[in-house]
Amino acid sequence: MSVYKLETRGLVKEYSGTVALDGVDIGFSAGEVHALIGKNGAGKSTLVKILAGSLVPTRGRIICDGELCELRSPQDAFERGIAMVYQELSLVPGLRVAENMLLGRMPKRRGWIDWAATYARAEKVLEELGVEIDARARVGDLGVAEQQIVEIAKAMSCDPAVLILDEPTSALARHETEHLFRLVRRLCERGVAVVYITHRLHELHQIADRVTVLRDGHHIKTVPMQETDIEEVVQMMFGEGVQRARPEDLQPGKTPLLEVKGLSRRGHFENIRFSLCEGEILGIAGMLGSGRTELLKGLFGADACDEGEIAVEGRSVVAPTPPQMKELGLAFTPENRKEEALIQAHSIRANMCLASMGRIAQGRYITRALEQAVVDEQVNRLQIKVADSEDPVSSLSGGNQQKVVLGNWLGNRPRVMLFDEPTRGVDVQAKEQIFQAMWDLSRDGIASIFVSTELEELIEVCHRILIMREGRIEEEVRPDLSVEELTLRCMGEVRDAG
Amino acid sequence: MPVDNVGAWLRRSIMELILFALCAILAFEAEGFFSVDNLLNVLRNVSMQGIIAFGMTMVIISGEIDLSVGSAVAFAGCLTAYLTQALAGLGFGLGLAVGLAMLGSVLTGLGIGALSGVIRVRFGVPTFITTLAWMTMLTGAAQLLTGGFPLTPFPEWYNFLGGGYLLGIPFPAIVFALVFVLTNFLMGYTTWGRSIYAVGGNAEAARLSGIEVGKIKIGVMATVAFLAALAGILQSAEIMSGAATTARGWELDVIAAVIIGGTSLMGGEGKIRGTLIGVVFLGILVNGMTLMNISEYWQHVVRGGLILSAVLINRANQ
Prior knowledge:
The complex is a heterodimer of chains A (498) and B (318). Chain A has 17 helices and 24 strands.
């Protein structure tokens, strides 16, 4: 008989050649908050999806209440008492709280919905959780934090023994987080086994009883939180990584290309000030929700800012728009390739000339010869693997799609590149080629701003790194610190004068 | 030519092939179909809706729609007639009055279309709603202008625009051909056309690529409304009056032609050349069925079936 409520033994998940999970043994106990920690791609999501029945493992066993069980669908997991709250909210905003909680299982009387019973049941669950939310309120009228709580209440309404929370605090403010923690604590006291995924490491001390660190699909270690600290956890997350160095010939110039003063956008970022010189690669580090993406969009004119000044090569820009910034030599590769950067159904050729349309036309008249020349130039320069440039861009791999996004802008001869997560979902080789492209741009005097969640990339590529926390630039560092230290600084765990 | 190329060519040209087959069948089965007179007649019958269909193709590719084109045709005809009468009444020569009236109608149309675009861009109201409102308003406005009876102020030469021939070809057909060449060029070979495809394919990607999405949307809405006004003038010239009851339900025929031509209602995909095929296809089908004395009721059923099959064929081809 196992001491654990839920246990995995030798869990392996392979996707066409790549191993997402490689022999993971973890036990989750009743009445305990068990945190899962790891970088993006470490295997956390894969693991919890297997536990929730939405992925089937390649090998390995899952043991629930001491007996072997097969979870072939979310329904199977549900029947075993395993409920999951996903990071993206799955509520219907137009319906009331009670309807959302009992969606598809509302009590009925003679075929009609029994509203009195519906509200009574929902209110009972909410009350037991000690939550003060009106069961009759429309979900769309609630704040994000309350919606998150409704989501948990929804999962709790089926009285699960195991509750999996995937980054429940990523959209919450500090005081809302504390409210959520109290709720999670109460669940534990009732004997629920809570599996808790988070990127916010400073939450660990507040909420976790034990912590498991995953890295590249391997189970690194499981320790009681009392016996470890955040520094150690960070070290386990990154391991003995070899830090590659940036080429030495890269020297930023002295002429400022972009100067930003007091730039603010309410609720997103505040009083941003920096300048960017010719050929310089500036990194922006920060945790999720620190305002990195919003800042880049503000700089490019894609979102309107409330206050502040942006000057490009000495010329001040008032109320910028993307066409205007493009004209001034800025370029922006957005974080969501699929939704924001590419037209999936259109050809590689058409996608490669979206931003650089001016360069394939004489006046307004597009000639095929000019267009093909622009496309070929970028395909060769970025070594994009293209069978036929008439194929839809969706037929390319993630790395090659990202190169198309990059090529699309390079064709326009920009002076300043803004990169938002350019390496997300990109293979290692393409990643190196993208860094190479940034360095080549730097040699030509083109400046870049590089935003990435992968902090070791910033250290490898950048001349200088700005650290953003809660919408503010808190400090500036040189890229000679370790990933662990940079991570801690991003979380605000290190506050020294240096 | 390798086999798979033949296959690809066949799939690409499926609508042309079906059209060709239809013509071949009608040549044998429908008496008088395969004569110069009849074919020119078909051409004239389709040209007015066809002129609008090219603009509609641009609108649909950009991800929008215009439901008001039928009413806009009637309104433009009535406005032209009304202005002609009013200007002539003020002492202008009839020729000058007609000229100014035509100009006024076309500019009004352009303005209405642009306004739909502005409402879309500034206030985020879908063009489906705005143009639905225009549809009703313009029908009402046309009736207000004419007082419920057709206005007939036009000089005799005005009929040439709708019923005349130039070198043996119906004048509206010449306009139809010109609009085809122009829009085909616009969509295929200009930055404007390329931007329209981009906006319809992924508006956010287009915006973040520095394309002026708002201007593009306003531009296409103005274009289709302009073309509808133009068709309205030709139509009023054919019947020599401004009548509020003309062109009822044209919006559906026009959209049907665009869809049959392979343009996706989701936006981002489609070809002006496809719409040409769609317009001619519908025209020939109606003409052939009429020649074969098939009742009008059946004609409706067959046309509806054609729209559905065309969409299914295009879907299967993707």
